[in-house]
Structure formats: structure tokens, C-alpha cells
Amino acid sequence: MEKGRSITLKHLLIRGKRYIGLQFNTDKIIQALVKELPNVKWSNEFNMAYILNSKQNIDDIFNVFSGVAWVNCNYFFDNKQIHENNEPIDITWFRNRKLPKNYRVCPNNYLDKLELKKYANNTVKSYVSTFETFINYYNTKELIAINEDDVRKYILKLIQEDKSNSHINSVINSIKFYYEAVLGMPNRFYQIERPRKEKNYPKYFLKKMC
Fold this sequence. Notes:
By secondary structure, the protein is of the alpha+beta class. The protein has eight helices and five strands; from the N terminus they run E-E-H-E-E-H-E-H-H-H-H-H-H. It has two domains: about 70 residues, no CATH class; about 130 residues, Orthogonal Bundle (DNA polymerase, domain 1). The chain has a five-stranded mixed sheet, with helices on one face. Helix 5 crosses helix 7 and helix 6 runs antiparallel to helix 7. It starts with 5 loop residues before the first strand and ends with a helix.
């Protein structure tokens, strides 16, 4: 295997179907091997080749590039650690809520995944609240059909409403959790920009600047 030669797998959603994105630097050997994959196509939107997301195609990728290039799966498989030593999740508040008519509630598999990963109760409430607000904003779209452009427009709305950076980051985390951890599409929204970290200067420093 030539040093530095690699191909990175990404999750793509194109016209409602899940695909495997194949990202790589210009390389004649890799390009030739990519063409050997079944029904491979090129996406101008994502600027990468892609094939249908299936177990057989994943196996084919590893077989084709074995010994030739490193297959980078860091953006494809969910390797996030389970949170330890957190108290058991209490979701009685979720079941006992009084909700408006036609309100879109958080999917059960979302809660199940939070419990499986042992997230803290405060984090669970934050994720559920921000995710439900988001999916009710797009209440006419199927969850799987929501794309990166939709998320960007929503984040822009929050910025225009002067929401804090910490709130916006919490919203992004709750959205990514559903698509990446629950649906098994790590880095589904890998191109979503996060707000820059706010600088908290000491009070004496701020006085000195005034």
C-alpha cells in the first residue's frame, strides 16, 4: 500500500435514498478502482463519487481497496463512547406533558438511543426540547427528507433571533444525534458550520478596555 493513499467514506442522502460517499484526492489508481464499484455515480453537489448504501457495497469497497489504499471510516461508523456513571434516565416528564394539537413529538428511538448511551437527564431534556422545536419548524417534511440546507436556514433563523452560541450548539448537537446516532449516519451534516466560541473576558479586563 502506497503511503498516504486513502479514500474516505461519508454518508450521503440523495433524493431520499442513502448512499456511501467516496471522497479521495486525485489519484489514477484510486479513480480506476472506484470505477470497478457497482453502479458508481458522481455528485456535483457533494463533489464526490457515491454508490448505494448496502452491506454488500461496503464489503465491496473494502475488497477493492484492500492492500491499495486505507479506507477511512471515521465519518461513517459511530464509534462514540457510551457515557458512564450517569443516573438512570427519567422520562416521566416526557410522557406526562400537555402538548398542542398536531405537535410533532420526539421519536421513541431517539429516547431509546439517549438511554442506551446513558446521557444525563439534563442533556436528555435539552436534546428532546431543541430537537422537537426543530422538527415542528419543518412539520410538513419527513424527517429523513430534511437536508443540510434546511438545517442551515434554521440555524440562520436562530442567529437572527440573537440566540446564544451555546443554545445554537445544543440545537446542532440534538439534530446531529438523531441523524448520526439514531439513524446510524455519522457526520450526516458534516458541512454544517458551528458558531465561533464566545470569548468570556474577566470583568477587570473589560473595565480596562472601557
